[in-house]
Write a structure and sequence with these properties.
With 171 residues, this protein is mainly alpha-helical. 50% of the residues lie in helices and 8% in strands.
């Protein structure tokens, strides 16, 4: 937890901008952060929990819980779609070959009308026991942006739509 706080301080990430993996050992780190003064608003995500009630993209007809098997699928699919539709991008100065391989290398399929990402165990079996840790971290960043900024984005979209509907330009 101390190294996370130090890194957040160094990169000027506010405490409410942190999203921690609560799966396995991460649960303890999350709990320590939440109990630390100033870090009470740290977000924690268990990859095995149910998918959320948020949409992945505003244009989606329904929330992720209706289209994704569970949270790990929602996280991976959200990251891919945010990159695809240019809601998120990776700084070209960052050496991202490993991250790109992990993001694109995780298989997805549809199971009973819900999208599903391959398990970490299956991914590792296909990739010489390498875990998709960079991809998981990136997915948590995208998730935090969705959680933190979705109300703001929806407000801007709604306001622009209302202004356009009543004949005002959307500037």
């Amino acid at each position: 937890a101390d190294s996370i706080k130090a890194m957040c301080t160094a990169f000027r990430v506010p405490a409410d901008g942190i999203c921690v993996d609560r799966t396995g050992n991460g649960a303890g780190v999350h709990d320590i952060l939440k109990a630390t003064r100033g870090y009470e608003r740290t977000n924690g995500v268990n990859f095995f929990q149910a998918a959320s009630k948020m949409k992945i993209l505003d244009e989606d007809e329904g929330p992720a819980e209706e289209t994704c098997h569970r949270m790990d699928s929602e996280l991976a699919i959200s990251a891919r779609e945010w990159i695809l539709y240019k809601y998120a991008w990776i700084n070209p100065d960052y050496s991202h070959n490993e991250l790109a391989a992990q993001l694109s290398g995780r298989k997805t399929y549809t199971d009973r009308k819900k999208r599903r990402v391959e398990s970490k165990k299956d991914y590792k079996a296909r990739n010489q026991d390498h875990s998709p840790n960079k991809s998981d971290a990136f997915c948590l960043c995208i998730h935090q942006a969705r959680v933190k900024f979705a109300p703001l984005i929806q407000s801007v979209i709604t306001t622009a739509g209302v202004r356009a509907a009543v004949g005002h330009d959307s500037k």
